[in-house]
């Protein structure tokens, strides 16, 4: 699976020139969005100094940009700029950018070289790692995609200093997920150093990113094409994707939805007798510690379940979920009972009054 170089450190973006000094690329095509366009000088200047043409394409921001129309716009721009099979596409941005740009790189001329430079914590620990690329289609997240390994993943933790606290917390949801899947020790470290990690203090931040990446890379290396244990990386995600889709991607960040989804999956694990309440309590406490939600607003549970039936991990017409027995001991459950899922969704939904009070607190805090 590997076959690529990953550089994880504060200030690693300054190494781009030296890392590409001996490359044979004919040109570079940099894809970013309006938020990450401010980082373009850090990328363009070292690339231009290599003596190759550098083209840029700026996407709109947000999940709504991750569509076939955006991919077509990229393909058209690449064609007009004369991007060829010896060119390299560089994805500069968060998960939306790396997902879309990776898909474009995988399909343009049957595949050109790709470099990921994630600029969000979510992108650094999850979206840019593992070779999955995708676009959304027909209201379903990541429905169309391919596998495409980058040649290089450049992870510069210093880029995170410009992000709002909510985006940092969102990325940390995927870090928590990695710990829940694979490492009670890492989970305990996240508890112990939460204040330092949230404050982006080094070396705790870079060490946390590195450990989350190593967990994902080890799982992916043993199941690159997602036919077995790689599914464990979807812990909480079937719930999360359905919640995001039901709320039209406007209520929660991806990480917030994942946090709620992990709590739903842990709650369901307890309801079905696989786990004790301690498993759920541990995850809830961790999410609260990192400022992540654990409960749903008043939503139609039937609509959420309807979206869950469309998840691409399902087999036939039955819902597949990742459930758990304890931290570090998860498994894939197929054909999960719909009524149990509905019961959990109802248990994890705030009353209208409680939700209203939560909104008031969020406005006046």
TrEMBL record:
Superkingdom of origin: Bacteria
EC number: 4.2.3.4
Enzyme class: lyase
Residue ranges annotated for the 3-dehydroquinate synthase C-terminal domain, each copy included: 171-314
Cofactor note: Binds 1 divalent metal cation per subunit. Can use either Co(2+) or Zn(2+).
Catalytic activity of the protein: 7-phospho-2-dehydro-3-deoxy-D-arabino-heptonate = 3-dehydroquinate + phosphate
Domain 3-dehydroquinate synthase N-terminal per the UniProt entry, residue ranges: 57-169
Subcellular location: Cytoplasm
Ligand binding (NAD(+)): 95-99, 119-120, 132, 141
Primary localization class, coarse: cytoplasm
One Gene Ontology molecular-function label: 3-dehydroquinate synthase activity
Pathway: Metabolic intermediate biosynthesis; chorismate biosynthesis; chorismate from D-erythrose 4-phosphate and phosphoenolpyruvate: step 2/7
Sites where the protein binds Zn(2+): 174, 237, 254
Cofactor(s) the protein needs: NAD(+); Zn(2+); Co(2+)
Function of the molecule: Catalyzes the conversion of 3-deoxy-D-arabino-heptulosonate 7-phosphate (DAHP) to dehydroquinate (DHQ).
Family: Belongs to the sugar phosphate cyclases superfamily. Dehydroquinate synthase family.
Name assigned to this protein: 3-dehydroquinate synthase
Species whose genome carries this gene: Simkania negevensis
């Amino acid at each position: 699976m590997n076959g690529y170089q990953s550089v994880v450190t504060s200030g690693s973006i300054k190494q781009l020139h030296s890392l590409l000094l001996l490359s044979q690329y004919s040109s570079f095509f940099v894809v970013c969005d309006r938020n990450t366009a401010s980082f373009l000088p850090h990328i363009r200047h070292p690339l231009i100094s290599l003596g190759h043409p550098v083209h840029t394409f700026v996407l709109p921001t947000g999940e709504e940009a991750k569509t076939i129309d955006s991919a077509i716009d990229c393909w058209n721009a690449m064609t007009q700029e004369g991007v060829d099979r010896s060119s390299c596409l560089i994805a500069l941005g968060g998960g939306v950018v790396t997902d879309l740009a990776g898909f474009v790189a995988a399909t343009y001329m049957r595949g050109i070289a790709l470099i990921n430079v994630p600029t969000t914590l979510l992108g650094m620990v999850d979206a840019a790692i593992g070779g999955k690329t995708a676009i959304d289609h027909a209201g379903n997240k990541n429905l169309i995609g391919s596998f495409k390994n980058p040649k290089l993943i450049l992870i510069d933790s210093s880029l995170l200093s410009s992000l709002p606290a909510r985006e940092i917390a969102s990325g940390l949801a995927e870090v928590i997920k990695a710990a829940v899947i694979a490492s009670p020790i890492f989970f305990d470290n996240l508890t112990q150093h939460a204040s330092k990690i949230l404050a982006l203090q080094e070396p705790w931040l870079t060490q946390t990113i590195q450990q989350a990446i190593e967990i994902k890379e080890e799982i992916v290396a043993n199941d690159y094409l997602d036919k077995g244990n790689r599914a464990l990386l979807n812990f909480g995600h079937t719930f999360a994707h359905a919640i995001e889709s039901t709320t039209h991607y406007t209520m929660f960040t991806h990480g917030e939805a994942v946090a709620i989804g992990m709590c739903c999956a842990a709650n369901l694990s307890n309801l079905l007798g696989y786990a004790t309440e301690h498993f759920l309590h541990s995850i809830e406490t961790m999410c609260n510690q990192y400022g992540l939600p654990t409960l749903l607003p008043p939503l139609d549970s039937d609509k959420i379940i309807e979206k869950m039936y469309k998840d691409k991990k399902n087999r036939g017409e039955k819902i597949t979920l990742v459930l758990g027995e304890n931290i570090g001991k998860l498994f894939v459950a197929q054909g999960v009972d719909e009524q149990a899922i509905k019961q959990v969704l109802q248990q994890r939904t705030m009353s209208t009054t409680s939700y209203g009070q939560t909104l008031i607190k969020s406005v006046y805090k």
